[in-house]
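hiii, so i know i said id send this last week but things got crazy w the move. better late than never?? heres the sequnce for the chain we talked about at the cafe, plus the structure i predicted for it. fair warning i was half asleep when i ran it
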Amino acid sequence: MILIKDHKQTELFDPYRFLSPKRRQLLDKTWPGLFKDIILPELPVSRIFSFFSDGVGLWEMGSQP
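okay and structure toks below
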């Protein structure tokens, strides 16, 4: 089953709690933070989710069964 998560929903528990504050800040200020805050919200999930499969992950374009 593929679940689509609303990117505006906050986490109940911090998934990065094992990181030191310095490493967390580094993550937030480099490309992962940019991806999470700017690119991810703009992805057209409703248009691309059909290219994903529960068992395989991402199907190659044109090879979807």
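btw Residues 21-29 form the longest helix (9 residues). thought thatd interest u
miss u guys!!
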